[in-house]
Amino acid sequence: MKTHVVKLKANRKTLSAYLKEDMNLSSRKAKKLLKDGIAVNNKKAYGDMKLKDGDILYIEEDKSRDNILPEKMEISVLYEDEHILAVNKPPYMVIHPTKTHMEGTLANGIRFYFDERGIEEPVRFFNRIDMNTSGIVLIAKSSQAHSLLDRYSAKTMEKKYIAIVSGHIEKKEGRISLPISNEADQEGRRNISDQGSLAITDYKVLEEFESSSLISVSIITGKTHQIRVHFSSIGNPLLGDRLYGGENDMIDRQALHASELNFLHPIYKKPISIKADLPNDMLLLLKMLKGEA
């Protein structure tokens, strides 16, 4: 049970309106609380009852948990407050348990991290990246934070990546706007398809090597394998990306790192900028491409 002190400067407001307008709850969440999870000044609450400044709301917290097995592992925390957590996922790690990866996933580690700190909420990922992609993953610590990330923060969220691609891109800065299939083929590949959904990727070449390029990437949309499909489609697959034609002996996975996330905090409404340094395998790859290793 948590308490909330009502703050109203002028006119009274109905409880239902206060929950949605002042506490930023979704209509579904507000309706659920009114049904069985809220009281005003220790008395049963109704949606049309008028609140006044100083009233105390007693809110029954949803303590539903997931069934994820807690697993102790090193978690690289990039940002944390009482509402959200951002971590730097290493390559070769699955985000969420699957039939073939029940343990060793990031979710297992976050479940342990939450349990150690008394956080009974389910593990709620706001963004996901491929198993072999490294970088920033954002986790909401409550259903409210997750809902507000989706309703408010996502509208202006900037997702930036660093990638190393095969060859030299003709235009050194540009946008790729091509539709990507909604389903994968038998090999797990997505393809450019008029029957798919439009995907938009912005890029800028940062440095060129003999037969490859270091680029920064921003995704405007969020299709599965978007960056990998788009650069493969223009003849510049990511180095190490066997699935999309970029197989390379110098790195065992696609050279792709989720390096930066900029957004408006879902609760505090202040700008948040999170950055993650390149992992060791991509740093080593860059040294080899420059002839320094």
Automatic annotation (TrEMBL):
Entry keyword set: Isomerase, RNA-binding
Record GO terms (molecular function): catalytic activity, acting on RNA; pseudouridine synthase activity; RNA binding
Enzyme Commission number, as recorded: 5.4.99.-
Keyword Ligase appears in the UniProt entry: no
Highest taxon listed in the record's lineage: Bacteria
Residue stretches making up the Pseudouridine synthase RsuA/RluA-like domain: 83-233
Pfam families xref list: PseudoU_synth_2
PANTHER family: MITOCHONDRIAL RNA PSEUDOURIDINE SYNTHASE (PTHR21600), RIBOSOMAL LARGE SUBUNIT PSEUDOURIDINE SYNTHASE D (PTHR21600:SF44)
Protein's name according to its UniProt entry: Pseudouridine synthase
Species name: Lutispora thermophila DSM 19022
Lineage: Bacteria, Bacillati, Bacillota, Clostridia, Lutisporales
